[in-house]
Design a protein that fits this description.
The protein is of the alpha+beta class and 407 residues long. The chain has one domain: 4-Layer Sandwich (L-amino peptidase D-ALA esterase/amidase), CATH 3.60.70. It is 22% helix and 25% strand. Helix 6 crosses helix 7.
């Protein structure tokens, strides 16, 4: 295994005493400006926020713990390891639950805590994303983190009472990662939560998206945002995806059949048909929406991935959650509150923003991802930037990049 490599020096001592040697990266503010889909000239509709990220919604923080170690033959429990965990905190580390809604386009996957969201209308903690077989570990660790950080509001007559139903979602990374080695631990979950920050969001082979695929290319974490004006007020819709779905043949970028233009660079472990893949989509907004309206917003994310070639195959877990950071302080176990909400007739621009930002977040994940070799030498190739631009140019869809040096 590699010697430890840390991104956050303040977390160095804890990692050294808590985890076996492993390359670990934790970043929401990468030092080097990354290449994103718009830099390559991919044309997208809509007006993005200043960071073109979910963190354009004020208060939202994102943290990753990325685990990469070992090479060669799979030895269960030892590696190779290509996995991680991602945390999205709606109001940062302030406990102030938000209205939320969720939607399952196809349910061959997991997102815990959704029955209480459906019943209550509230998201009372972070949204966590990891690999399929680490959901339980991350769920339990999130509860412990909240308990230790006192990330809850006790009842006035029961100050020591604490309970939590965390939201933890997953996609499967077992083609590249020793998924049955259970390498994601409590320490990694705590790190993703503690190091969550506003600002730039690392994309591609990071966090829960480290070992993921999309449309036969390397996938992972991606994000985007849109700004809209309604009733004279400006609102933001931000998207974060953990993208691990889709087949090559249907892959489309800005209306161009890129999957049919780039038919080589297939995985080294056979004809990788990701009809059994999945995608988790987190939708954030500062528009004042009620739970039933947020469910409507979550449903529109399906139309974003449809633009890129998803048809929600039988084996795909396509599960989406939406929350609103409006109406701060409205949540209480004991008191009533007056809240503000938009009229349903005002929501169409928010629907469009969700579709557009979801489409772009997936392509950002693929553009940021890098070729990765995992268990048994299995290799997932990155989407080649030059050939993507060539396909777009062929169909008259290429925008010349603002910064040609980033090609």
């Amino acid at each position: 295994m590699h010697a430890p490599k840390w991104t956050f020096h303040s977390f160095l001592l804890l990692l050294l005493v808590s985890i076996p040697p492993m390359t670990i990266a934790q970043s929401t503010n990468p030092a080097a400006e990354p290449v994103r889909a718009r830099d390559l000239g991919v044309p997208f509709d809509g007006n993005p926020g200043p960071l073109n990220a979910i963190t354009d919604v004020p208060g939202v923080e994102v943290g990753h713990t990325t685990l990469i170690s070992g090479n060669g033959k799979l030895v269960t429990g030892k590696g190779p390891v290509r996995t991680g965990v991602t945390a999205i905190l709606p109001r940062g580390k302030t406990y102030d639950p938000v209205y939320a809604g969720w939607f399952s386009l196809n349910g061959n996957g997991e997102m815990t805590g959704t029955t209480w969201i459906e019943e209550s209308g509230w998201l009372e903690g972070p949204v966590m994303i990891t690999n399929t077989h680490s959901v339980g570990t991350v769920r339990d660790a999130t509860i412990e983190w909240a308990q230790k950080k006192k990330f809850f509001q006790p009842l006035a007559n029961e100050p020591n009472t604490f309970w939590m139903l965390p939201v933890v979602a997953e996609t499967y990374d077992g083609d590249l990662n020793d998924i049955n080695g259970f390498h994601v631990t409590k320490v990694h979950t705590f790190a993703a939560l503690d190091n969550a920050k506003p600002g730039l969001v690392a994309e591609g082979n990071v966090g829960g998206g480290t070992g993921m695929m999309t449309h036969g290319f390397k996938g992972g974490i991606g994000t985007s945002s849109r700004v809209v004006t309604l009733d004279g007020k400006t609102y933001t819709v931000g998207i974060l995806v953990q993208s691990n779905y889709g087949i090559r043949d249907t892959f489309t970028v800005a209306g161009v059949p890129v999957g049919r233009e780039i038919t080589d660079l297939t995985t080294t472990y056979g004809d990788h048909n990701q009809e059994n893949g999945s995608i988790i989509i987190v939708v954030a907004t500062d528009a004042p929406l009620l739970p039933h309206q947020l469910k409507r917003l979550a449903q529109r994310a399906a139309m974003g991935i449809a633009r890129n070639g998803s048809y929600a195959s039988n084996g795909s877990g396509d599960i989406f959650i939406a929350f609103s950071t409006a109406n701060p302080g409205a949540w209480s176990r004991e008191k009533s509150a007056e809240v503000t909400s938009l009229a349903n007739d005002s929501m169409s621009l928010l629907f469009r923003a969700t579709v557009e930002a979801t489409e772009e977040a997936v392509i950002n994940a693929m553009v940021a991802a890098r070729t990765m070799t995992g268990i048994n030498g299995n290799t997932a190739h990155a989407l080649p930037h030059d050939r993507l631009r060539g396909a777009l140019r062929k169909y008259g869809r290429l925008n010349e990049p603002k910064n040609p040096a980033k090609r």
